[in-house]
Amino acid sequence: MNQEAVMVPMGDWADARLKSLGKNDVVRFNSQVGSGFGKNIENWIGRDKAYPSNVLHLATECGNKSHSAAFPEALPEWFIKLFTDEGDLILDPFLGSGTTCAVAQKLRRNSVGVEILAEYCDLAETEVQTNDYQLFEKGVKNGNRNGSRNHEVH
Q1: DSSP string covering the chain, please?
Q2: Half-sphere exposure of residue 77: CA atoms within 13 angstroms, side-chain side
Q3: CA atoms of 94 and 88, how far apart (whole Å)
Q4: Which residue has the higher pLDDT, 37 or 133?
Q5: Where would I find the H helices in the chain?
Q6: 8-state DSSP, 113
Q7: Separation of alpha carbons 81 and 86, rounded Å
Q8: Do 36 and 30 meet the contact criterion of CB atoms below 8 Å apart?
Q9: 19 backbone dihedrals φ, ψ, rounded to 5°
Q10: Which of 25, 82, 92, 108 has the fewest C-beta atoms lying within 10 Å of its C-beta?
Q11: Where do the domains of the chain lie, and which CATH numbers do they carry?
C-alpha cells in the first residue's frame, strides 16, 4: 500500500494547533465514540503532510459522458495511487465510460476493462488508448501447438 502517495498537506491550521498541546495530545487518545481508533497529536509535529481523513472530499464534476454512473477522475486516481505502483495492472470489471482505465493510463499503469454493452465499449474507446491482445490463439486446442505441449498464455 502506498499511503505516502495519497497524503495531504498539513495546512495552516497545524501551526496554531500544534503550538499548545493538551494532555490528550501527547499520549494516544482513543476516539470517544468507541471505534477503537485513536491518535497522538504530538506525532504530527514537524510533518508537512498527513494521512487524509476517512472521508474523501472530491469535486463532483465528471462531465457526464453519456453514462448514468460517471464519476470524477479523482475517485479512481486516489485508489490507484494508494494500492498500485507504476506498471501494475488495473482491472475494471464494469468499464462504462472508461474513466478508471483512462486514469490508469495517465498514472502509467496497465489496465483491462470489461463491459457487456457495445455502446459503452464505443464510449470508452474515445477516452482510452486501446491495444488489442488475443487471449487465445485461433486454431490451437488444449494448449498444443506443432505437436508439443505449450505452456504459454496467448
Answers
A1: --GGGG-EE--THHHHHTTS--TTTSS-EE-TTSSS-EE-GGGGTT-SEE---SS----------S-TT---THHHHHHHHHH--TT-EEEESS-TTSHHHHHHHHTT-EEEE--S-HHHHHHHHHHS------SS-TT--TTEETTEE-----
A2: 13
A3: 19
A4: 37
A5: 13-17, 74-83, 99-106, 118-127
A6: E
A7: 9
A8: yes
A9: -70, -45
A10: 108
A11: 3-50 (no CATH), 59-154 (3.40.50.150)
pTM, two decimals, is: 0.67
Grid cell in block for residue 146: 506443432
Place of cell 491482445: 133
**pLDDT tens-digit series, residues 49-96:** 888 877 787 776 666 567 777 788 899 999 999 999 999 999 999 998
Inter-residue contact 44 to 16 (CB < 8 Å)? no
DSSP state of 55: S
Distances, alpha carbon 108 to alpha carbons 72, 74, 102, in Å: 18, 15, 10
